[in-house]
Design brief:
Blueprint lengths: L18 H10 L3 H14 L3 E4 L8 E3 L12 H10 L4 H12 L3 H12 L11 H8 L3 H11 L12 H12 L4 H8 L1 H5 L3 H8 L3 H13 L20 E6 L2 E6 L6 E4 L1 H8 L3 H35 L1 H6 L9 H8 L3 H7 L4 E4 L2 E4 L7 E3 L6 E3 H14 L8 H10 L6 H10 L5 H10 L3
Parallel strand pairs: 3-6
Antiparallel strand pairs: 1-5, 2-4, 3-4, 6-7, 8-9
Helix pairs in contact: 4-5, 6-7, 13-14, 14-16, 16-17, 19-20
Length: 442
């Protein structure tokens, strides 16, 4: 056998992922805070790059199509009206009240430490001792702060236990009696349905205990659970939605958006002595400025398309979410689906309904029985929450009954889908809900 080498010449096209292209792609998924860190890191190695904390230059914003408003700014009356009218995140609801309760910036910062510890249930999720350390105050002072914080509405928020949660509500209603206070001190007996033990502890008979039990059932053990939306964000939003005279508009958050400033005058001064180094380094600086500008333009384009499609959500909350996929947005603005995926990975959008991760606004479509399109899965989950909230506690709706109600409203829904969504929402089964109601009954 004869072995020989043969050389073939030919041409072919391929995409080469350069280091700069990889970095430009990474910039798409950075939040404003992360982007600032990246630019600062680059400026340490490049003498021609300067970073500024807030963006400069012309204002960048885009409008969403389809929603119109004749109003301009939002005053405190508007805020209070929206708190009552629309479903929103618990974080957003409390933050708006804190804005009015704590006008002094230092106090507002301290209040935010409590806000960060607020659980979705409405309870305080961190020991007061730990919060006192974070506040830099004595435990007694932290307790005074907690008393102020617990003045928010609805009453019962920021409680440290079930008894405290219910006590706050009873105090607010003006119905806290010695008998009811004793009842709250003996909630374990109620959980065990030990009515005789309760009567002994309260030194009363059933006729006296019955009104107290009725009052207890009227209170909300988890006042935060009635709100929609994700857990409180821990940083400022990257995009801000607001009303304009002709509809909704979305802006980049200028207060946190960093800008790249290239010191070309300094480069020109050094070029004669360090030609090659200056040319290469200046080229990197100019590229970074272009890449950040492209990141901002892409972010704004994605945000504007999301706003256009979800304008109904801006006014109605979760019930107004419409089906929307990454592919829908990508095709509308003429980019690849992976680009939209990267942009929506870690960015937050501030809306009239609260601040949400962009991914929260995407939802699959469920089949409509008639007509085109379908209902958003997120909107259906919101409807399930509503039905459970409004049901007769002594005769809760089964998964099959919920499926029939929603299907009757025009969106086909299977029983197993209701069960899946109920698990996601952490709603107990109808059997468990009925048992809980019996435990709270006379």
């Amino acid at each position: 056998m004869q072995i020989s080498t043969v050389q073939h010449l030919g041409q072919r096209q391929s995409v080469v992922m350069t280091a700069q292209l990889q970095k430009a792609i990474c910039l798409l998924q950075y939040s404003n805070v992360d982007l600032h860190s990246v630019i600062e890191s680059e400026s340490e190695d490049n003498p021609f790059i300067e970073v500024k904390a807030g963006a400069t230059g012309d204002s960048q914003s885009m409008r969403g199509i389809g929603s119109r408003s004749s109003g301009g700014g939002i005053d405190q009356g508007d805020v209070l009206a929206r708190i009552q009218e629309h479903d929103q995140s618990l974080y957003s609801h409390v933050a708006k009240q804190f804005d009015m309760m704590f006008p002094v910036p230092v106090d507002r910062i301290k209040a935010d430490i409590f806000l960060e510890a607020l659980e979705p249930s409405g309870w305080l999720g961190e020991p007061l001792e730990s919060l006192a350390m974070r506040l830099g105050v004595a435990l007694e002072d932290a307790e005074d702060w907690l008393v102020r914080i617990q003045q928010v509405e609805p009453s019962g928020l920021f409680a440290r236990s079930l008894a405290e949660c219910l006590a706050l509500q009873a105090e607010e209603k003006g119905v806290m009696t010695p008998l009811f206070r004793t009842l709250l001190e003996n909630l374990p007996k109620l959980a065990q349905a030990d009515l005789k033990g309760l009567m002994r502890a309260c030194s009363c008979d059933m006729d006296e205990l019955r009104p107290a039990l009725k009052l207890l059932r009227s209170l909300n053990p988890k006042p935060g659970a009635d709100f929609n939306g994700p857990v409180a964000p821990q940083r400022a939003p990257d995009l801000i939605v607001s009303r304009a005279d002709d509809g909704w508009k979305v802006d980049l958050n200028k207060s946190t958006l960093p800008s790249v400033v290239v010191n070309e005058k300094k480069a020109a001064t050094l070029k004669a002595a360090h030609g090659d180094y200056v040319n290469d380094t200046l080229s990197v600086a100019l590229w970074l400025r272009r890449a950040v500008a492209h990141r901002n333009q892409t972010t704004l384009a994605v945000g504007a398309e999301i706003l256009r499609r979800q304008s109904k959500f801006m006014g109605q909350g979760a019930s107004g979410l419409v089906p929307m996929t990454l592919k829908d947005v990508a095709e509308a603005i003429g980019v690849h689906e992976s680009t939209v995926s990267r942009v929506t990975t870690d960015l937050l959008m501030q809306t009239p309904q609260g601040t949400f991760p962009l991914k929260y606004l995407f939802s699959a479509s469920l089949r409509k029985d008639e007509g085109e399109g379908g209902e958003s899965a997120a909107a259906v989950r919101h409807r399930i929450q509503q039905l459970v909230r409004e049901e007769d506690a002594s005769s809760p709706l089964s998964d099959d009954a919920i499926a029939k109600v929603i299907t009757g409203e025009g969106t086909h829904l299977a029983r197993r889908t209701v069960a899946k969504y109920r698990d996601i929402l952490k709603i107990p089964s109808s059997f468990q809900r009925r048992r809980n109601a019996l435990l709270q009954a006379d």
